[in-house]
Amino acid sequence: MFRTTSLIIGAWTTLSFAAGATVRAADDGESKPGLLEVDLGSAVWTIVLFVLLLLVLGKFAWPNILKGLQDRESKIRGDLERAETAARDAEARVSEYEQRLAEANEEARRIIDQGRNDAQKIATQLTDQAQSDIDQTRQRAEADLDAARQRALNEIYATTATLATEVAGQILKRQITSEDQQALVDEAIGRLGDTRN
Predict the structure, then answer these.
(1) Contact present, 60 and 8 (Cβ < 8 Å)
(2) Taking the CB of residue 140, how many other CB atoms lie within 10 A of it?
(3) N or C: which end of the chain has fewer CB within 10 A?
(4) What confidence tens digit (pLDDT) does each residue in 50-84 have?
(5) What are phi and psi of 39, to 5 degrees?
(6) Closest by Cα among 138, 144, 104 to 118
């Protein structure tokens, strides 16, 4: 590119000096024209120089400029397509994990309902032992519910963190190490535990 520019500048300078010398030689014998008078020799040389400049630029500069612009456009288009694909994948995964969470909540409700039914049957059959059995069944059901919720949330946070690091890694063009990823997952799980308390 530098060599092409140097050639263009050199050609322009040489042609300008040649045109100037021709105009000066023509002016030596004649009187100088006024402001509104047109010098045919200067006009012809100006047109010739302009056409030569267009030809040189068209041959050497424009193809490189157009290629650079097209390369940049295709890179930007590719980056946008990759970002859209990653966003669609993220939405699909989030939808899948929301569905899993809803199923886990439904299962938890079913477990709680089953526990309540069992507790009512036990209460009608037993006298003194019934109250302690009801409390134990309820505690087990709630512990199962908490454990199921915690497992589901841990899985969602881990997968979301992995997906986020992959998308961020693609955008930043670097890979986050597994230690960084585990630290992010642990931090997210810790925040979840803090919000539940």
Answers:
(1) yes
(2) 12
(3) C
(4) 999 889 888 888 888 899 999 999 999 999 999 99
(5) -95, 115
(6) 138
Distance (Å, rounded) from C-alpha 90 to C-alpha 96?
Answer: 10
- pTM for the model: 0.32
Nearest to 161 by CA among 191, 178, 181, 187: 181
At residue 32, what are phi and psi to the nearest 5 degrees?
A: -75, 140
How many residues appear in the chain? 197
Q: Are 8 and 61 in contact (CB under 8 A)?
A: yes
- Give Cα 155 distance to the centre of its chain: 25
* CA dihedral (175, 181, 183, 187) positive or negative: positive
**Alpha-carbon separation of residue 38 from 32, 33, 47 (angstroms):** 11, 8, 13
| CA separation for the pair 173, 159 (Å, rounded) | 20
| pLDDT tens-place string over residues 134-147 | 889 889 988 889 88
Query: Using an 8 Å Cβ cutoff, are 107 and 148 in contact?
Result: yes
Q: Could you give the 3-state DSSP secondary structure of residue 111? A: helix
- Model confidence at 97, in pLDDT bands (50, 70, 90)? confident
What's the number of CA atoms in the CB half-sphere (13 Å) around residue 3?
0
Map tokens 């089953």 to a residue: 114
